[in-house]
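Please check this protein record:
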Amino acid sequence: MRNPQIGVESVYRPGPVTFCAIPLFVTSVEAGFPSPAEDYIEGRLDLNEHLIRHPAATFFVRVAGDSMLGAGIHPGDILVVDRALEPADKKVVIAVVDGELTVKRIRIIEGRVLLVPENVAYEALRIEGDMQVEIWGVVTNVIHPL
């Protein structure tokens, strides 16, 4: 790649969609955890419903490198990527540039397409005619530990 920027460590397909309902509490949490009494449980929450809109078009990638720290994407994070969504200006995407995977924010400025990191230590990558570029999907969620 002309502007080496590590972005993706590995790619995963989701397993069969399983139902994993976790209790959802109706009380807000200020600085503690609500009593697990049944009175507080509103219902069950399945994270698949919130993280995956198009199961057949969704995959996950594990991030390597620090080029997207400003977007809240850290090394080791897992990104939920949806191929059914249209890449558009200001969306974070997974792209293949000259055979290498990367995660960047797509920018369209004055008709030019850029893949922009969110770390001042890296430069934007201007997409030019002789480059082989394919957008694999739009990042919809970031999963990382605190």
The beta strands are 8-12, 21-25, 41-46, 58-63, 78-82, 92-97, 100-109, 112-116, 125-126, 133-143. The mean pLDDT is 82. Residues 113 and 128 are 8 Å apart (CA to CA). The radius of gyration is 18 Å.
